[in-house]
Specification:
The protein is mainly α. It has one helix and no strands.
């Protein structure tokens, strides 16, 4: 049985460095933009409720009982 070496192959080291960099990039994006994003269940920003109708002024000569 051949002796096993504790040295990691260069390709495996490069793979783990790339995975670590992607995780750090995702965390950085979350802390940059994630805290300002609206929750997924919030209504879209462009769909505000319709304003209440303005009160109609009485015609001249009508009483306001």
């Amino acid at each position: 049985m051949p002796d096993e070496s504790n040295v990691l192959p260069t390709s495996r080291v490069a793979r783990w460095l790339a995975i670590g960099a992607l995780i750090l990039f995702a965390v950085a994006l979350y802390f940059r933009d994630g805290r300002r994003l609206a929750p997924l269940t919030a209504p879209p920003a462009g769909s505000a409720p319709a304003p209440a109708p303005a009160p109609v002024a009485p015609a001249p000569g009508q009483s306001t009982n």
